[in-house]
Design a protein that fits this description.
Elements: E1 7-11, E2 23-31, E3 34-36, E4 42-43, E5 47-49, E6 52-59, E7 62-66, E8 77-85, E9 91-95, E10 101-105, E11 126-135, E12 139-142, E13 145-152, H1 154-161, E14 171-182, E15 189-192, E16 194-202, E17 205-212, H2 216-223, H3 227-237, E18 245-250, E19 257-258, E20 263-266, H4 277-289, E21 296-298, H5 305-323, H6 325-345, H7 361-364, H8 367-384, H9 386-399, E22 403-405, H10 407-416, H11 425-432, E23 439-447, E24 452-459, E25 469-478, E26 489-498, E27 502-508, E28 515-518, E29 527-532
Parallel strand pairs: 1-11, 17-18, 18-20, 21-22, 23-29
Antiparallel strand pairs: 1-2, 2-8, 3-7, 4-8, 5-6, 6-7, 9-10, 10-15, 11-14, 12-15, 13-14, 16-17, 19-20, 23-24, 24-27, 25-26, 25-28
Helix pairs in contact: 3-4, 4-5, 5-6, 5-8, 6-8, 8-9, 9-10
GO molecular function: metalloaminopeptidase activity; peptide binding; zinc ion binding
Pfam family, one: Peptidase_M1_N
Family: Belongs to the peptidase M1 family.
Length: about 525
Protein backbone atom coordinates (compact mmCIF):
# COMPACT_ATOMS: atom_id res chain seq x y z
CA UNK A 1 0.00 0.00 0.00
CA UNK A 2 1.49 3.30 -0.99
CA UNK A 3 0.64 6.69 0.42
CA UNK A 4 -2.73 7.56 -1.02
CA UNK A 5 -6.40 7.08 -0.36
CA UNK A 6 -7.83 3.74 0.68
CA UNK A 7 -11.60 3.66 0.19
CA UNK A 8 -13.60 0.94 1.88
CA UNK A 9 -17.31 0.68 1.09
CA UNK A 10 -18.95 -1.55 3.66
CA UNK A 11 -22.45 -3.00 3.58
CA UNK A 12 -23.18 -4.31 7.07
CA UNK A 13 -26.72 -5.40 6.33
CA UNK A 14 -26.09 -9.01 5.26
CA UNK A 15 -28.75 -9.57 2.60
CA UNK A 16 -30.65 -12.81 2.30
CA UNK A 17 -29.07 -13.54 -1.08
CA UNK A 18 -25.50 -13.15 0.23
CA UNK A 19 -23.45 -16.36 -0.16
CA UNK A 20 -22.50 -16.24 3.54
CA UNK A 21 -23.91 -14.50 6.59
CA UNK A 22 -22.11 -11.37 7.63
CA UNK A 23 -20.97 -8.51 5.46
CA UNK A 24 -20.19 -7.70 1.85
CA UNK A 25 -17.23 -5.39 1.33
CA UNK A 26 -16.06 -3.56 -1.75
CA UNK A 27 -12.52 -2.26 -1.17
CA UNK A 28 -10.84 0.17 -3.52
CA UNK A 29 -7.15 0.59 -2.77
CA UNK A 30 -3.94 2.10 -4.05
CA UNK A 31 -1.62 -0.84 -3.52
CA UNK A 32 1.46 -2.42 -5.00
CA UNK A 33 1.63 -6.18 -5.64
CA UNK A 34 0.33 -7.81 -2.50
CA UNK A 35 -2.70 -7.59 -0.24
CA UNK A 36 -3.20 -9.27 3.09
CA UNK A 37 -6.61 -10.84 3.65
CA UNK A 38 -7.61 -13.94 5.57
CA UNK A 39 -9.99 -16.87 5.26
CA UNK A 40 -12.90 -17.36 5.86
CA UNK A 41 -13.30 -14.24 3.74
CA UNK A 42 -13.65 -15.28 0.10
CA UNK A 43 -12.60 -13.26 -2.93
CA UNK A 44 -15.61 -12.86 -5.21
CA UNK A 45 -15.06 -12.91 -8.98
CA UNK A 46 -12.14 -11.12 -10.58
CA UNK A 47 -9.66 -8.49 -9.41
CA UNK A 48 -9.79 -5.67 -11.96
CA UNK A 49 -7.23 -2.90 -12.40
CA UNK A 50 -9.00 0.09 -13.92
CA UNK A 51 -11.32 -2.20 -15.88
CA UNK A 52 -8.77 -4.88 -16.80
CA UNK A 53 -9.31 -8.22 -15.08
CA UNK A 54 -6.16 -9.70 -13.51
CA UNK A 55 -5.27 -13.17 -12.33
CA UNK A 56 -4.85 -13.66 -8.59
CA UNK A 57 -4.30 -16.30 -5.92
CA UNK A 58 -5.69 -16.22 -2.40
CA UNK A 59 -4.07 -18.61 0.07
CA UNK A 60 -3.79 -18.42 3.85
CA UNK A 61 -3.64 -14.69 4.59
CA UNK A 62 -2.14 -13.52 1.29
CA UNK A 63 -3.79 -12.21 -1.83
CA UNK A 64 -1.28 -12.18 -4.68
CA UNK A 65 -2.16 -10.29 -7.85
CA UNK A 66 -0.44 -11.13 -11.14
CA UNK A 67 0.15 -7.81 -12.86
CA UNK A 68 -0.46 -7.39 -16.57
CA UNK A 69 2.77 -5.41 -16.76
CA UNK A 70 5.61 -4.78 -14.29
CA UNK A 71 5.48 -1.87 -11.87
CA UNK A 72 8.13 0.82 -11.75
CA UNK A 73 9.41 2.13 -8.42
CA UNK A 74 6.97 4.59 -6.90
CA UNK A 75 4.20 3.80 -9.36
CA UNK A 76 0.68 3.83 -7.91
CA UNK A 77 -1.74 1.19 -9.19
CA UNK A 78 -5.42 0.88 -8.45
CA UNK A 79 -7.23 -2.40 -7.86
CA UNK A 80 -10.74 -3.31 -6.78
CA UNK A 81 -11.10 -6.32 -4.51
CA UNK A 82 -14.57 -7.65 -3.75
CA UNK A 83 -14.93 -10.26 -1.02
CA UNK A 84 -17.51 -11.62 1.39
CA UNK A 85 -17.76 -13.71 4.51
CA UNK A 86 -17.57 -13.45 8.29
CA UNK A 87 -14.12 -12.46 9.62
CA UNK A 88 -12.81 -14.76 12.33
CA UNK A 89 -10.84 -11.87 13.85
CA UNK A 90 -10.35 -8.16 13.34
CA UNK A 91 -14.02 -7.16 13.11
CA UNK A 92 -16.20 -8.07 16.09
CA UNK A 93 -19.85 -8.57 15.12
CA UNK A 94 -22.14 -9.38 18.01
CA UNK A 95 -24.17 -8.10 20.93
CA UNK A 96 -22.94 -5.42 23.29
CA UNK A 97 -23.64 -5.32 27.03
CA UNK A 98 -27.19 -4.09 26.36
CA UNK A 99 -28.02 -6.86 23.88
CA UNK A 100 -27.79 -4.62 20.81
CA UNK A 101 -26.05 -5.87 17.66
CA UNK A 102 -22.84 -3.90 17.04
CA UNK A 103 -19.82 -3.88 14.71
CA UNK A 104 -16.36 -2.89 15.95
CA UNK A 105 -12.86 -3.21 14.54
CA UNK A 106 -10.24 -5.01 16.62
CA UNK A 107 -7.05 -4.79 14.57
CA UNK A 108 -4.18 -5.06 17.06
CA UNK A 109 -1.54 -6.15 16.29
CA UNK A 110 -1.98 -7.55 12.76
CA UNK A 111 -5.65 -8.48 12.55
CA UNK A 112 -6.71 -5.75 10.09
CA UNK A 113 -5.93 -8.27 7.32
CA UNK A 114 -8.86 -10.34 8.53
CA UNK A 115 -11.37 -7.86 7.13
CA UNK A 116 -9.42 -5.27 5.10
CA UNK A 117 -7.10 -5.76 2.13
CA UNK A 118 -4.00 -4.12 3.53
CA UNK A 119 -0.28 -4.46 4.10
CA UNK A 120 -0.60 -5.25 7.78
CA UNK A 121 2.65 -3.95 9.25
CA UNK A 122 3.57 -0.87 11.33
CA UNK A 123 5.93 0.58 8.71
CA UNK A 124 3.18 0.84 6.08
CA UNK A 125 1.16 3.99 6.76
CA UNK A 126 -1.73 5.10 4.56
CA UNK A 127 -4.64 7.48 4.50
CA UNK A 128 -8.11 5.95 4.45
CA UNK A 129 -11.75 6.52 3.72
CA UNK A 130 -14.60 4.46 5.15
CA UNK A 131 -17.94 4.64 3.35
CA UNK A 132 -20.46 2.59 5.31
CA UNK A 133 -24.10 1.85 4.56
CA UNK A 134 -26.06 0.55 7.56
CA UNK A 135 -29.64 0.48 8.88
CA UNK A 136 -30.67 3.93 9.93
CA UNK A 137 -30.67 3.21 13.67
CA UNK A 138 -26.87 2.78 13.55
CA UNK A 139 -24.42 5.64 13.98
CA UNK A 140 -21.00 4.94 12.45
CA UNK A 141 -17.64 6.18 13.77
CA UNK A 142 -14.29 5.94 12.00
CA UNK A 143 -10.98 7.75 11.58
CA UNK A 144 -10.66 11.35 10.52
CA UNK A 145 -13.41 13.77 9.60
CA UNK A 146 -17.05 13.11 8.78
CA UNK A 147 -17.55 13.91 5.10
CA UNK A 148 -21.16 12.82 4.60
CA UNK A 149 -24.21 11.38 6.34
CA UNK A 150 -27.13 10.69 4.01
CA UNK A 151 -30.35 8.88 4.83
CA UNK A 152 -31.42 6.43 2.11
CA UNK A 153 -34.77 4.77 1.61
CA UNK A 154 -34.57 1.03 0.93
CA UNK A 155 -35.65 1.50 -2.66
CA UNK A 156 -32.95 4.12 -3.32
CA UNK A 157 -30.25 1.88 -1.90
CA UNK A 158 -31.41 -1.15 -3.89
CA UNK A 159 -31.43 0.87 -7.09
CA UNK A 160 -27.93 2.26 -6.42
CA UNK A 161 -26.48 -1.19 -5.70
CA UNK A 162 -28.56 -3.21 -8.18
CA UNK A 163 -29.94 -5.50 -5.47
CA UNK A 164 -33.34 -6.49 -4.18
CA UNK A 165 -34.87 -3.97 -1.79
CA UNK A 166 -35.63 -4.70 1.87
CA UNK A 167 -39.18 -3.41 2.46
CA UNK A 168 -39.64 -1.14 5.46
CA UNK A 169 -35.91 -0.77 6.10
CA UNK A 170 -34.26 2.62 5.68
CA UNK A 171 -30.51 3.15 5.69
CA UNK A 172 -27.85 5.74 6.33
CA UNK A 173 -24.67 6.20 4.31
CA UNK A 174 -21.77 7.49 6.42
CA UNK A 175 -18.47 8.64 4.91
CA UNK A 176 -15.35 9.26 7.02
CA UNK A 177 -12.03 10.47 5.61
CA UNK A 178 -8.66 10.06 7.34
CA UNK A 179 -6.22 12.43 5.63
CA UNK A 180 -3.14 11.78 7.80
CA UNK A 181 -1.34 8.48 7.09
CA UNK A 182 -1.63 5.88 9.87
CA UNK A 183 -0.59 2.26 10.44
CA UNK A 184 -3.08 -0.49 9.62
CA UNK A 185 -3.91 -1.43 13.22
CA UNK A 186 -5.12 2.15 13.77
CA UNK A 187 -7.93 1.91 11.21
CA UNK A 188 -11.19 2.13 13.14
CA UNK A 189 -14.80 1.23 12.46
CA UNK A 190 -17.66 1.20 14.93
CA UNK A 191 -21.38 0.88 14.27
CA UNK A 192 -23.88 0.87 17.12
CA UNK A 193 -26.87 2.72 18.54
CA UNK A 194 -24.68 5.60 19.69
CA UNK A 195 -25.38 8.78 21.55
CA UNK A 196 -22.87 11.42 20.44
CA UNK A 197 -21.62 14.45 22.37
CA UNK A 198 -19.65 17.16 20.57
CA UNK A 199 -18.48 18.80 23.76
CA UNK A 200 -15.67 21.10 22.73
CA UNK A 201 -12.55 21.72 20.71
CA UNK A 202 -8.81 21.57 21.18
CA UNK A 203 -6.73 23.64 18.78
CA UNK A 204 -9.85 23.95 16.56
CA UNK A 205 -10.26 20.16 16.42
CA UNK A 206 -13.49 18.54 17.52
CA UNK A 207 -13.65 16.60 20.80
CA UNK A 208 -16.36 13.94 20.82
CA UNK A 209 -17.85 11.20 22.99
CA UNK A 210 -19.60 8.17 21.43
CA UNK A 211 -21.39 5.89 23.89
CA UNK A 212 -24.33 3.49 23.74
CA UNK A 213 -27.60 5.38 23.97
CA UNK A 214 -28.40 3.55 27.21
CA UNK A 215 -25.23 5.04 28.75
CA UNK A 216 -25.66 8.56 27.40
CA UNK A 217 -25.69 10.54 30.64
CA UNK A 218 -22.98 8.55 32.42
CA UNK A 219 -20.75 8.32 29.35
CA UNK A 220 -20.89 12.00 28.49
CA UNK A 221 -19.87 12.72 32.08
CA UNK A 222 -17.04 10.17 32.21
CA UNK A 223 -15.27 11.11 28.98
CA UNK A 224 -15.54 14.91 29.28
CA UNK A 225 -12.33 14.90 31.35
CA UNK A 226 -9.36 14.64 31.20
CA UNK A 227 -9.34 14.61 27.38
CA UNK A 228 -8.80 18.29 26.60
CA UNK A 229 -6.43 18.82 29.52
CA UNK A 230 -4.28 15.83 28.53
CA UNK A 231 -4.14 16.93 24.89
CA UNK A 232 -2.90 20.36 25.91
CA UNK A 233 -0.24 18.86 28.19
CA UNK A 234 1.07 16.51 25.51
CA UNK A 235 1.03 19.24 22.86
CA UNK A 236 2.97 21.58 25.13
CA UNK A 237 5.57 19.01 26.21
CA UNK A 238 5.98 16.93 23.01
CA UNK A 239 4.66 18.71 19.92
CA UNK A 240 1.46 19.34 17.95
CA UNK A 241 -1.45 16.92 17.79
CA UNK A 242 -1.33 15.22 14.38
CA UNK A 243 -4.98 14.48 13.60
CA UNK A 244 -8.34 15.94 12.65
CA UNK A 245 -10.43 15.18 15.74
CA UNK A 246 -10.43 13.07 18.91
CA UNK A 247 -13.37 10.84 19.81
CA UNK A 248 -13.64 8.57 22.85
CA UNK A 249 -15.78 5.57 21.88
CA UNK A 250 -17.47 2.90 24.00
CA UNK A 251 -17.15 -0.48 22.27
CA UNK A 252 -17.33 -4.22 22.84
CA UNK A 253 -14.17 -5.12 20.91
CA UNK A 254 -11.59 -4.29 23.59
CA UNK A 255 -11.28 -4.96 27.29
CA UNK A 256 -9.32 -1.83 28.18
CA UNK A 257 -8.48 0.73 25.51
CA UNK A 258 -7.29 0.77 21.90
CA UNK A 259 -5.63 3.90 20.53
CA UNK A 260 -7.12 3.94 17.01
CA UNK A 261 -6.17 7.28 15.47
CA UNK A 262 -8.77 9.99 16.19
CA UNK A 263 -11.30 7.39 17.44
CA UNK A 264 -10.15 5.68 20.65
CA UNK A 265 -12.06 2.54 21.64
CA UNK A 266 -12.76 1.63 25.28
CA UNK A 267 -14.42 -1.46 26.70
CA UNK A 268 -18.14 -1.90 27.37
CA UNK A 269 -17.57 -1.42 31.10
CA UNK A 270 -15.59 1.80 30.72
CA UNK A 271 -18.71 3.87 31.40
CA UNK A 272 -19.52 4.07 35.11
CA UNK A 273 -20.74 7.63 35.67
CA UNK A 274 -18.14 7.91 38.45
CA UNK A 275 -14.98 9.01 36.60
CA UNK A 276 -13.04 6.22 38.27
CA UNK A 277 -9.28 6.54 38.65
CA UNK A 278 -8.73 3.34 36.69
CA UNK A 279 -10.57 4.52 33.58
CA UNK A 280 -9.24 8.06 33.97
CA UNK A 281 -5.73 6.63 33.64
CA UNK A 282 -6.73 4.49 30.66
CA UNK A 283 -8.08 7.59 28.90
CA UNK A 284 -4.80 9.44 29.52
CA UNK A 285 -2.78 6.46 28.26
CA UNK A 286 -4.76 6.12 25.03
CA UNK A 287 -4.57 9.85 24.36
CA UNK A 288 -0.78 9.69 24.89
CA UNK A 289 -0.73 7.05 22.14
CA UNK A 290 -1.94 9.63 19.64
CA UNK A 291 1.60 11.04 19.92
CA UNK A 292 3.52 7.82 20.67
CA UNK A 293 2.51 4.88 18.50
CA UNK A 294 0.22 6.78 16.16
CA UNK A 295 2.06 9.92 15.00
CA UNK A 296 5.49 8.39 15.73
CA UNK A 297 5.15 4.67 15.03
CA UNK A 298 7.60 1.85 15.64
CA UNK A 299 9.14 0.66 12.36
CA UNK A 300 8.88 -3.00 13.30
CA UNK A 301 7.24 -5.32 15.82
CA UNK A 302 10.62 -5.62 17.57
CA UNK A 303 10.28 -2.03 18.82
CA UNK A 304 6.74 -1.93 20.22
CA UNK A 305 8.08 -0.43 23.46
CA UNK A 306 8.47 2.84 21.52
CA UNK A 307 4.68 2.94 21.57
CA UNK A 308 3.67 1.30 24.85
CA UNK A 309 6.60 2.37 27.03
CA UNK A 310 6.27 5.97 25.88
CA UNK A 311 2.50 6.08 26.40
CA UNK A 312 2.90 4.57 29.88
CA UNK A 313 5.56 7.06 30.96
CA UNK A 314 3.76 10.07 29.54
CA UNK A 315 0.62 8.95 31.36
CA UNK A 316 2.62 9.14 34.58
CA UNK A 317 4.00 12.55 33.62
CA UNK A 318 0.50 13.87 33.05
CA UNK A 319 -0.63 12.38 36.36
CA UNK A 320 2.19 14.23 38.10
CA UNK A 321 1.24 17.46 36.35
CA UNK A 322 -2.49 17.16 37.03
CA UNK A 323 -2.71 15.25 40.32
CA UNK A 324 0.65 15.76 42.04
CA UNK A 325 3.95 14.07 42.76
CA UNK A 326 2.43 11.45 45.05
CA UNK A 327 0.17 10.18 42.27
CA UNK A 328 3.17 9.94 39.93
CA UNK A 329 5.21 7.99 42.49
CA UNK A 330 2.28 5.70 43.23
CA UNK A 331 2.14 4.70 39.56
CA UNK A 332 5.92 4.41 39.25
CA UNK A 333 6.15 2.21 42.35
CA UNK A 334 3.30 -0.03 41.20
CA UNK A 335 5.02 -0.50 37.84
CA UNK A 336 8.28 -1.38 39.59
CA UNK A 337 6.58 -4.15 41.55
CA UNK A 338 5.07 -5.55 38.35
CA UNK A 339 8.55 -5.65 36.82
CA UNK A 340 9.97 -7.47 39.84
CA UNK A 341 7.18 -10.03 39.74
CA UNK A 342 7.53 -10.53 35.98
CA UNK A 343 11.28 -11.12 36.01
CA UNK A 344 10.98 -13.60 38.84
CA UNK A 345 9.19 -15.79 36.28
CA UNK A 346 10.87 -14.71 33.01
CA UNK A 347 14.38 -13.41 33.79
CA UNK A 348 15.58 -13.50 30.16
CA UNK A 349 12.86 -11.33 28.65
CA UNK A 350 14.13 -8.40 26.55
CA UNK A 351 12.25 -5.22 25.70
CA UNK A 352 13.66 -4.92 22.17
CA UNK A 353 13.25 -8.16 20.25
CA UNK A 354 15.29 -9.59 17.39
CA UNK A 355 13.10 -10.59 14.43
CA UNK A 356 10.11 -11.44 16.58
CA UNK A 357 8.17 -14.47 15.33
CA UNK A 358 5.34 -15.37 15.38
CA UNK A 359 3.50 -12.07 15.53
CA UNK A 360 0.58 -12.15 17.95
CA UNK A 361 -0.84 -10.40 20.97
CA UNK A 362 1.03 -12.63 23.40
CA UNK A 363 4.37 -12.16 21.65
CA UNK A 364 4.22 -8.52 20.59
CA UNK A 365 3.16 -7.08 23.94
CA UNK A 366 3.72 -8.00 27.55
CA UNK A 367 3.48 -5.79 30.58
CA UNK A 368 7.19 -5.14 30.28
CA UNK A 369 6.71 -3.22 27.04
CA UNK A 370 4.64 -0.89 29.18
CA UNK A 371 6.23 -0.88 32.63
CA UNK A 372 9.92 -1.51 31.93
CA UNK A 373 9.76 0.65 28.81
CA UNK A 374 8.35 3.45 30.96
CA UNK A 375 10.98 2.94 33.64
CA UNK A 376 13.70 3.04 30.98
CA UNK A 377 12.58 6.51 29.91
CA UNK A 378 12.43 7.62 33.53
CA UNK A 379 15.99 6.40 34.18
CA UNK A 380 17.20 8.01 30.96
CA UNK A 381 15.71 11.32 32.06
CA UNK A 382 17.32 11.03 35.49
CA UNK A 383 20.73 10.16 34.06
CA UNK A 384 21.04 12.74 31.25
CA UNK A 385 19.12 15.59 32.92
CA UNK A 386 15.98 17.57 32.19
CA UNK A 387 17.32 19.86 29.46
CA UNK A 388 18.89 17.11 27.37
CA UNK A 389 15.94 14.75 27.88
CA UNK A 390 13.24 17.20 26.84
CA UNK A 391 15.26 18.62 23.95
CA UNK A 392 15.70 15.06 22.69
CA UNK A 393 12.05 14.10 23.14
CA UNK A 394 10.80 17.09 21.18
CA UNK A 395 13.41 16.57 18.46
CA UNK A 396 12.53 12.87 18.17
CA UNK A 397 8.84 13.70 17.75
CA UNK A 398 9.59 16.41 15.22
CA UNK A 399 11.92 14.22 13.14
CA UNK A 400 9.62 11.17 13.00
CA UNK A 401 6.25 12.94 13.03
CA UNK A 402 3.76 10.90 10.95
CA UNK A 403 6.56 8.48 10.17
CA UNK A 404 8.31 5.44 11.66
CA UNK A 405 11.30 5.03 13.97
CA UNK A 406 13.47 2.32 15.49
CA UNK A 407 15.10 2.14 18.90
CA UNK A 408 18.41 3.09 17.27
CA UNK A 409 16.75 6.16 15.74
CA UNK A 410 15.57 7.23 19.19
CA UNK A 411 19.00 6.60 20.74
CA UNK A 412 20.78 8.66 18.09
CA UNK A 413 18.44 11.60 18.62
CA UNK A 414 18.94 11.48 22.39
CA UNK A 415 22.72 11.31 21.92
CA UNK A 416 23.11 14.17 19.47
CA UNK A 417 20.33 16.74 19.93
CA UNK A 418 21.91 18.48 22.91
CA UNK A 419 25.54 19.62 23.03
CA UNK A 420 27.90 18.05 23.79
CA UNK A 421 26.97 14.71 22.19
CA UNK A 422 27.07 11.64 24.43
CA UNK A 423 27.22 7.88 23.89
CA UNK A 424 24.18 5.97 25.17
CA UNK A 425 24.95 2.65 23.47
CA UNK A 426 25.70 0.69 26.65
CA UNK A 427 22.79 2.21 28.55
CA UNK A 428 20.32 1.23 25.84
CA UNK A 429 21.86 -2.24 25.43
CA UNK A 430 21.77 -3.23 29.09
CA UNK A 431 18.21 -2.09 29.71
CA UNK A 432 16.54 -2.94 26.39
CA UNK A 433 18.54 -5.75 24.77
CA UNK A 434 19.18 -7.99 27.76
CA UNK A 435 16.96 -9.43 30.45
CA UNK A 436 16.79 -8.84 34.17
CA UNK A 437 17.30 -5.76 36.30
CA UNK A 438 19.78 -4.95 39.11
CA UNK A 439 19.57 -6.77 42.42
CA UNK A 440 21.93 -5.06 44.88
CA UNK A 441 23.26 -5.58 48.39
CA UNK A 442 25.03 -2.77 50.22
CA UNK A 443 26.55 -1.89 53.56
CA UNK A 444 28.17 1.31 54.76
CA UNK A 445 30.36 2.48 57.62
CA UNK A 446 32.04 5.61 58.90
CA UNK A 447 35.86 5.75 58.90
CA UNK A 448 36.57 8.33 61.59
CA UNK A 449 40.31 8.18 61.03
CA UNK A 450 40.00 9.54 57.50
CA UNK A 451 36.59 11.26 57.77
CA UNK A 452 35.23 9.09 54.99
CA UNK A 453 31.97 7.31 54.35
CA UNK A 454 32.76 3.84 53.03
CA UNK A 455 30.07 2.21 50.86
CA UNK A 456 30.38 -1.35 49.62
CA UNK A 457 28.01 -2.31 46.84
CA UNK A 458 27.53 -5.81 45.47
CA UNK A 459 25.55 -6.62 42.35
CA UNK A 460 24.00 -10.07 42.65
CA UNK A 461 23.80 -11.42 39.12
CA UNK A 462 22.21 -14.83 39.62
CA UNK A 463 20.49 -14.48 36.24
CA UNK A 464 23.77 -13.63 34.50
CA UNK A 465 22.91 -10.00 33.68
CA UNK A 466 24.97 -7.10 35.01
CA UNK A 467 24.38 -3.35 34.89
CA UNK A 468 26.52 -0.26 35.21
CA UNK A 469 25.07 3.17 35.87
CA UNK A 470 25.10 5.96 38.47
CA UNK A 471 22.93 5.75 41.59
CA UNK A 472 22.07 8.95 43.48
CA UNK A 473 22.43 8.73 47.26
CA UNK A 474 21.40 11.02 50.10
CA UNK A 475 23.82 11.09 53.04
CA UNK A 476 22.04 12.25 56.16
CA UNK A 477 24.30 14.15 58.57
CA UNK A 478 23.58 16.16 61.75
CA UNK A 479 22.86 19.80 60.97
CA UNK A 480 25.20 22.40 62.38
CA UNK A 481 23.83 25.35 64.23
CA UNK A 482 22.36 27.78 61.73
CA UNK A 483 22.00 25.17 59.00
CA UNK A 484 18.78 23.74 57.66
CA UNK A 485 16.45 26.32 59.27
CA UNK A 486 16.33 24.48 62.56
CA UNK A 487 16.32 20.98 61.07
CA UNK A 488 18.08 18.29 63.07
CA UNK A 489 19.73 16.79 59.99
CA UNK A 490 20.49 17.65 56.40
CA UNK A 491 20.99 15.61 53.25
CA UNK A 492 24.18 15.68 51.24
CA UNK A 493 23.44 14.44 47.72
CA UNK A 494 26.15 12.42 46.03
CA UNK A 495 26.43 9.76 43.35
CA UNK A 496 28.01 6.31 43.24
CA UNK A 497 28.44 3.96 40.30
CA UNK A 498 26.72 0.59 40.17
CA UNK A 499 29.24 -1.85 38.71
CA UNK A 500 29.38 -5.61 38.12
CA UNK A 501 30.42 -7.65 41.16
CA UNK A 502 31.65 -5.93 44.34
CA UNK A 503 32.78 -2.31 44.47
CA UNK A 504 33.84 0.08 47.21
CA UNK A 505 33.33 3.85 47.21
CA UNK A 506 34.87 6.28 49.72
CA UNK A 507 33.35 9.75 50.14
CA UNK A 508 34.98 12.48 52.25
CA UNK A 509 32.55 14.04 54.74
CA UNK A 510 33.33 16.22 57.74
CA UNK A 511 30.60 14.68 59.94
CA UNK A 512 29.56 11.15 60.73
CA UNK A 513 26.41 10.21 58.78
CA UNK A 514 23.29 9.04 60.54
CA UNK A 515 21.77 7.38 57.49
CA UNK A 516 22.49 6.65 53.82
CA UNK A 517 19.50 6.55 51.46
CA UNK A 518 19.99 4.99 48.04
CA UNK A 519 18.04 6.54 45.16
CA UNK A 520 15.98 8.88 47.36
CA UNK A 521 14.06 10.37 44.42
CA UNK A 522 13.25 7.07 42.69
CA UNK A 523 15.35 7.33 39.52
CA UNK A 524 16.73 3.79 39.29
CA UNK A 525 14.95 0.49 38.64
CA UNK A 526 16.55 -1.89 41.15
CA UNK A 527 16.07 -3.99 44.24
CA UNK A 528 18.29 -2.87 47.10
CA UNK A 529 19.11 -4.37 50.49
CA UNK A 530 21.15 -1.92 52.59
CA UNK A 531 22.35 -1.72 56.18
CA UNK A 532 24.97 -0.06 58.34
CA UNK A 533 27.95 -2.21 59.12
Amino acid sequence: MTDGVESFELDLVGRNDAPEAGMIVNAVGEIVDELGSRKPLTITGSVPEEGTELEFTHAADRLRIILAEPSSRGQVRRFRVQYHGTPDRGLVIGENMHGDRTFFSDNWPNWARNWLPTIDHPYEKATAEMVVTAPIHYRVISNGLLVEETNLAAEELAKAQSTASMPGQDFRLTHWKQSVPIASWLFALGAARFAVDYYGEFDKKSLQTWVYIQDREKGFYDFAVPTKQAMKFFSDTIGPYAYEKLANVQSNSVGGGMEAATAIFYGDNSVTGERTVRWRNVIIHEIAHQWWGNAVTEADWDDVWLSEGFATYFTLLYREYAYGRDDFLEGLTADKQRIINFYAERPDYTIVHDNLDPIGRDTVTTGMMYQKGSWFLHMLRGMIGEDRFWSGIRAYYRLYYNSNATTDDFREVMENTYEPAIDLTDFFRQWLNQGGFPNLRSNWEWDGATNELVIRLEQIDDDGYVFEMPIPIAIMVPARRGEGRGARSQALVREIIMRPGMSETRIEIDREPTEVVFDPDHWVLMQMESNRR
